Structure formats: structure tokens, C-alpha cells
Amino acid sequence: MTVVGVTVIPTMVQKYQSPVRVYKHPFELVMAAYERRFPTCHLIPMFVASDVVDEENSEDGSTQKIERRCALDVDAPRLLKRIAGVDYVYFSQKNTLNRKERTLHIESHNETFSNRVIIHETCCYSVHPENEDWTCFEQTASLDIKSFFGFESTVEKIAMKQYASSIKKGKEIIEFYLKELEDEGITQVPRWTPSSLPLPLPRPTRLDTSPPVLPELAVTPAVSIPLPTDAKDSSSQDTKQDNSALQADSLTDILAGTPEDKLDADYIKRYLGDLTPLQESCLIRLRKWLQETHKGKIPKDEHILRFLRARDFNMDKAREILCQSLTWRKQHQVDYLLETWTSPQVLQDYYTGGWHHHDRDGRPLYILRLGQMDTKGLVRALGEESLLRHVLSINEEGLRRCEENTKVFGRPISCWTCLVDLEGLNMRHLWRPGVKALLRIIEVVEANYPETLGRLLILRAPRVFPVLWTLVSPFIDENTRKKFLIYAGNDYQGPGGLVDYIDKEIIPDFLGGECMCEVPEGGLVPKSMYRTAEELENEDVRLWTETIYQSASVFKGAPHEVLIEIIDASSVITWDFDMCKGDVVFNIYHSKRAPQPPRKEALGAHGITSPGGNNVQLIDKSWTLGQDYSMVESPLTCKEGESVQGSHITRWPGFYILQWKFYNMAACSATNLPRVDDVLATLQVSSHKCKVMYYTEVLGSEDFRGSMTSLESSHSGFSQLSAATTSSSQSQSSSMISR
């Protein structure tokens, strides 16, 4: 950005917040170890020297203020040092020791390049609130690079890298000097009393004045060490293992708590894993922001960490998606899903998935026999809402199992392993509405349960799998896709297969193992369990606002019609519908002009009171077939209970009308003698009403072959007219009917 001819470089600010690090030593002993870092420290090569420039003690000796000037030899490229024209970076450090309150406050800032770079750091040593013989340490810092000769980004990377390294080294330094004191026989330093004299301090030699260097975050003498902070009773170093066990018990309930809570370094390592100092900082800062801005309890630390990992610890991006997820969870009461959701019997019988022990890493193991699952039957019997809720309950249960396994195995376990068996997968699994429902479920899970899948083992992948993978993979996060391992045929039984990830003793019997698996075997969902759109719309809680299927009523003299506008010729109109009640004739028409606004037929005129029925008519009674509109496919008679899938490649742009018309036996019969089945069907249709559930979609022709092959069938009611009116390259239609 340029203002009045002057180039202004955007400010880059980096912040750091440490967890609470605990020393299992009294405050006075830690202070004695801390003072041994001056005037220089051989454990920090870049810390060249320090000089006391001012010192002030209170009359009673309880308070001591020391100001030091420290020099750092920053590890930076020679070219950058030459451009900067410095050899050392100088910092000013002010320490305030209060022996009475047992606190040490440290504040430091850079003197070198202070008009270009602002570095500010504060540290605090204090007594542990639950054990007066332990010492806590906290640290915050900020780096604000306003300008630096065009090397702002380089300077920022160097600064953050070296600062992170110095933080990790801080633990070793304090521990080194505590051990040195112990070797000298100093294991206790008396506390200050009103009659005490000030403790002697080592006097550093005067530092030679040398030109300063490249800016860098200060490596202040303040350091940090991750150790446990829990028990009040024992503080002996010989009981560290016992204290860790006590901590494991006391920190089991890791629901986020009150704003006064602070994260302890050992707790992070035990329950969340090994994080870099900057990753710890991101977690603490985001957690603190949530405590300040969200009323009530905030998410568990593991959950916050998942969102940070999903966005590579970018605070702003992680905060955005986390807040969206929190709003979603609150809106749909997802926190109470495990308590309130009861799996319907059809899911218990036909949903071929379930939890099964754990993998070699201690992760909960979920098995899904996708090839044995009737996806269409489940969608039709339950609807997308119930399926989504079931999948969410699986994810909620997975989170709970991760917490349990973290306690059982004594190490952080934040994700689970999923084993998917594809034996039996075929083209029926590529049923378009089912795939669409799957994609929407994946979208919800990806947005609200990031970084919960540790590994996905896909076994016995058939030839049709690449088609399904092409449809699904674009909706899966790249980091998640990297966790997929795919085995074709029996490859999973060889080296590098299943036994590398799952103990042989728990390999399911259907995969050649000896362990009985309680996952249902699946099968086709009986059509008697299918429900209408009206029934599915009566769910108490809707987790998304739209549904794949729409419901319509067809009456004698009142067909139901759907308008589809086609801009590009050779587009593909696809449909899938089920005859819930009665028989209809299905037609497709084309018109160059748009029909009049649709008129809805009043249900009351037909004696129907159901609020869920929908009947729309588009073709005006004044229109003439062959002049105002034309039939592009021959009629298809559809009987009650049939499922019809089909597609039509359009030849012309314009307006296409899909019509479901009441089946008139006398008009449609080819002979004057009706069939017995037709007469019986007519007698079963009450009030001359038919019900249909349908789904339509328009695809580009280039997307049709790979994604819609499930709609192709050798049985077609449209092939004759298509062959007569269009060439094979211009128009193609197919339908599949299952009874």
C-alpha cells in the first residue's frame, strides 16, 4: 500500500502464550537456580552476556528490582546481518522479585531496531495455588514487525523458529541448575521473613559495547518446564510416578471449565499429545478467547485442538469453523444426542456398521460392511434425517470412546480407525439419491468432526469402487484422504495388510479371522418399511432444511407436472421415483415456450385432507400436442410398488415437463379386454388418487457416464421412440423398474 508516495508495509503480529509449567520445587530454590543463568549461560549459546544497569531493594529486603541489558547473537544469514549492519541484538529486561508474596515478574523488550520491530515479553514465577512447595511459570510474548528492509517475512520466520527453540530449551536449563544445586548439597533455601537480609546476587562483569544485529524475539532468562501440577499431598521427587497416577485420576473429567482454569503443560502432554510451543500457544489463546466470549461451558480441549489441527493451527480459520460448529451443535442439541437418540429397529437390523475393539494404536475400531448395506432401502425407510442422526451418534460415541481409551492406555487418543468392507458393492450402491445423501452426511461430518478419523482401511474394493470414489473424494478433506488405505481382493491378508494395523486376535470372522463380530449382516430392507415424504417430514428435529425426495399426489384428471429448463442441449435429465399408491403413466414433453405459472390443484376437490399432498399442473388446457409442445419419450406405465429410475439426454434447449398422469385402464389398454391384474389394481385404488415420491436432477453430458451408470438398464420403456426420433449420440434414455 502506498500513501503519499511512501510505501507502507502491512504489520505482521505474532503472539505466544505458554501453558502453566510446574516445577516440583519450592519457589526459593527455583529462584536460586534461575539466578545462575546470569551473567551468561553456556546452555544458550546465543545468549552472549548481560549487564546489570540498575538495582533497587526495599528496606526490609522483601522486594528487589533489577534491570539488565542482554545481548543475543542471533543465528541469521550473514547477508541479512550485513544488510542490518549489526552483530548483536540488545534487550532490556526488568525483574521484580517479591520474596514476601513469592513471585517474580519479568518484562523485556528489544532496544535494537525498536522503531522497526517491537518485541515484548512478560513472564511470571509464582507459588502453585494447590501446593506451596511447587512453583508455576507462565510466559507471553508478541512480535510486531512493522518493516525490515523488505525482509519482514524472513525475519518473522527466523524469530519464531529461534523463540520456539529457546522455550523448549528452558526446561532443560532450569533442571540443569536445580541438579547442580542438589549436587552442591543445596536442596532447600529458607523463605523470606521480616528479619531476613536480601539474598546475595552474582555480579556480572561490564559488557563491551558492540554494534547490535538482526532483530529476534528475546531469549529472556525466564524459562519454562512442563511438569505435572496436581496432588496437594506429596512433593517428593521420589513420588513422581505416583503423582502422575494421581493426576490421571483427577484430570479424567476434561470438560472445559471455568474461566479461571489454565492449562498445565503435563496435562497437555498426557491428554492432548506432544505439541510444539507455538501449537500450545494457539490452543491456550483460542481456549481463552472461547472462555471470554462464550457463556457456559466451552468445548473440551481435545475438541478445540482438532479444529486447530484441521486448519494447520491457523487461529483465525480454526476459530471461524469452530464457532460455526458450536452454533450448529447448540441449534440441534447435538451434545444430548447420545442421551436422546434411540436407533430405530430398521437400523439395528439393516445398518451394517458397529464398534469392534480397538486397533494396535489403541484407537477405537469401527467396522462398516458397506457392500452388504441396502442404502436405498435405508434412505426410503428412514429418510436422510434419521440416517444423519445415526451417523452423528456414531461420531459422538467415537469421541466418548477416545476419551475412555486415553485413560486406559495412558496416552492421548483423539481419533478412531474405520474398516470398510466393500464385498458385495455393485452398481445399486451408486443409486444417485443415496450417493447424494452420503455426500451431504460427509459434508456435515467434515465440518463438525474434523481430525477424528485416524485411519481408513478399505478392503475388497471391487471394480465399481473407482466410480464411487470419484463421486465422494472431492467432498473429503485432503488431510483425511491421506489416511485412506485401499486393498483390492484378498490383498489385505498379505504383508502390509490388516495385521499391521489390527491384532490378529480381533480380526472379524467374515475377514478370515477368529473373532466373532456383532455387526449386522444387512440385506434388503423390505419395501413394507418404506415411508412417504409426508411421514418423513414429520420428524421432530431437522438437521438440514431440504430433502432429496418430494412427494406428489396424482388424481384422475389432475396429473402432477415438474418443469425443467434446459439451457445447453445434450444435458442429461435424470429421475428416480417410487409409486407409493396407485398406477400412473409417466411422460416427458418439450416446449419452446415457458408454461404459465403453475396452478396447484386443490386437494379438497378430490376429498383429500392430507396436508402433505402436492399437485402442480403446467400444461395449459388450450395447448395442442404437436404444436405447443411435443412428446420426446413414449409413455411408461408404472404400477403401484414399482421403483423407476431413468435418464434422458436432451436434444434441444427449452422447457421440459415431467408428467405423472393417472393410469386410465380403458384408454391405455391395447385391447378391449382388460387384464385381470388391471381390474384388481383399479379396485384397490381409492378416491382415484395416486401417490408418488420423486427426485430429479440435471447433469452435464460430460458428467453422465461416470456418475449415472447406475440408472442404465436393459429394460426400457423409452427406447423405441428414442431410436425413432434421435440418433444414439444425441439422445439416450433408459429406465429401470424393480418390483
Work out the count of structural domains: 4
CATH class of the largest domain: Alpha Beta
Strand content: 15-25%
Distance between the termini: 69 Å
Largest beta-sheet characterization: 8 strands, antiparallel
How much is the average pLDDT?
77
| Overall geometric form | elongated
| Rg from alpha-carbon coordinates | 36 Å
CATH architecture of the largest domain: 3-Layer(aba) Sandwich
Protein name: SEC14 like lipid binding 1
InterPro entries: CRAL-TRIO_dom (IPR001251), CRAL-TRIO_dom_sf (IPR036865), CRAL/TRIO_N_dom (IPR011074), CRAL/TRIO_N_dom_sf (IPR036273), GOLD_dom (IPR009038), GOLD_dom_sf (IPR036598), PRELI/MSF1_dom (IPR006797), SEC14/CRAL-TRIO_domain (IPR051064)
Domain CRAL-TRIO: 343-519
Domain PRELI/MSF1: 14-186
